[in-house]
Amino acid sequence: MSTPSHGPLVRVPFADLQALLQRIFQRHGCSETVAGVLAHNCSSAQRDGAHSHGVFRIPGYVSTLASGWVDGRATPTVTDVAPGYVRVDAAGGFAQPALAAARQLLIEKARKAGIAVLAIHNSHHFAALWPDVEPFADQGLVALSVVNSMTCVVPHGARKPLFGTNPIAFAAPCAGQPPIVFDMATSAMAHGDVQIAARAGEQLAEGMGVDAQGQPTTDPRAILEGGALLPFGGHKGSALSMMVELLAAALTGGHFSWEFDWSGHPGAKTPWTGQLLIVIDPSMAEGSRFAQRSRELVEHMQACGLSRMPGERRYREREAAEREGVALQEQELQSLTALLG
Amino acid sequence: MSTPSHGPLVRVPFADLQALLQRIFQRHGCSETVAGVLAHNCSSAQRDGAHSHGVFRIPGYVSTLASGWVDGRATPTVTDVAPGYVRVDAAGGFAQPALAAARQLLIEKARKAGIAVLAIHNSHHFAALWPDVEPFADQGLVALSVVNSMTCVVPHGARKPLFGTNPIAFAAPCAGQPPIVFDMATSAMAHGDVQIAARAGEQLAEGMGVDAQGQPTTDPRAILEGGALLPFGGHKGSALSMMVELLAAALTGGHFSWEFDWSGHPGAKTPWTGQLLIVIDPSMAEGSRFAQRSRELVEHMQACGLSRMPGERRYREREAAEREGVALQEQELQSLTALLG
């Protein structure tokens, strides 16, 4: 997640921002259903201060739709494979409408079998991952999701990039407060945050990436222009990134992060891969006790001096947005409005 | 995993080492069944060069059994909770016999439902985690396991230790070669490796831990004597460690890493917590294709210059041990034999 860039801010009611984005998505080739899902996802990220996945992404969505690389009108096909297994062919469209189409079946299976998995393939994921898992925790379930992306990370001990930024997101209910949620790239930084730093002319911390010659760099442009990111945490983050390729691509039937070729689609930005979600019903073993135990964990972390829980900043930004409206730069709002023309 | 310590080495056939360990476990209070499971686990770790979880652990097992902290004769109770959910009460015994008692049911459920979860509680885990997942991959399944341990890791941004070393292990089949397997502490180092470094009088790399005053240290003794480890990879590793507490303890009904009190049992070393395993049948979506895709991933990683795959060193050590016997220090073998007296 990033800090907002510079420039005068405006505040827009969430519903207005969502409606604006919905119109933009529809204007640029999405069906009403797909536009609704993406608009809610993207305004939620902006509302929660996840700026690298908020309205910052809209130009990328628009250029991708214009390039013909993604099908904004795709209808996902949901297959009920087994008592704990749902598969979705996203039909070359976005992953979020595929998840939305399968969500109810996935929840029913998790409640009945105790655990269920959703395997999405033939899908494009260009958004934050936490909006995919948080709603399950709101319903008392524990959710874990992984999605692979596009080659830009050098495996630990290798010389060339192969993996995507391959995030892992997790959500669990917590008594008396919003769910515990995290969403982490397995790269040292999220790709969107590198783009934001490049745009702002800022330098990165050391250990984030390498330049086109494979040499360490703190220049975000050097990473974006022929360079690559490193995994977080050395060989361990690298192993997790490998696991994400196996779960999100090999297991679902999607593409690995290096397998798709968008060179015939200038403007294409959305990785065409796969996504896996695992949902567990914690009441199976512990009845209603899980959320209380989750709360005890939080209290112990705070008692150890933890200043901020994972996800806490998002909830704070969300509260502020509910009171005052969603913050975005005046210039961003103008650019969005221009996309309706 | 660690490098072996110094001293003259001997080579012992695997079956002989396993038989010796089995006798030791039985001599010190384990039932034949429990002794068999632990002896196989511990000799496998020694065979594969995972020295921090090999015979190095035997004195800890013995002192724990003597202290009355763990029940070496416990009979686990397996409950068939739901089509994808198995629960085991390890009855204050070790986690490995609990897993062994539930393994067949777990596999049947994963093959039928597509995914299944095993929740073990009231269990002691004092071993490497990869032996718990690798056998599932040998049968064509994908397995993920987490286990929490005992307070010795300071959450990122906190002042005091709370989490255990909380490892994550993963295994997936791979066509034409042994499974892809990793087993990583979510701490910067495994606790056993800190103990081995302390015993060998070696210094650690920076960023591994803090001393009793919370100051960074490279002295393993300072970490063990009132100090603590740090998570790997900063806030991301810390979030994963938190997730392990939620999955392995809160979800199973086990203890968090800070909840058990062994002060009345001098010599006790085994964390009394919980363990979660998730097993997925990759044939549900992709038929027999998964292992081939897994192999393609490995080949691409190698083509990028990766010198060593996760788990590769273990397989190399295993092959050597099959040819020449399992390596251990002469002094270790003497100490083991003395434990039969």
Automatic annotation (TrEMBL), chains A, B:
Alphabetized UniProt keyword annotations: Oxidoreductase
InterPro entries registered for this protein in UniProt: Mal/L-sulf/L-lact_DH-like_ah, Mal/L-sulf/L-lact_DH-like_NADP, Mal/L-sulfo/L-lacto_DH-like_sf, Malate/L-lactate_DH-like
Coiled-coil features, chain-numbered ranges: none
Domain of life the protein comes from: Bacteria
Similarity field: Belongs to the LDH2/MDH2 oxidoreductase family.
Name by which UniProt lists this protein: Ldh family oxidoreductase
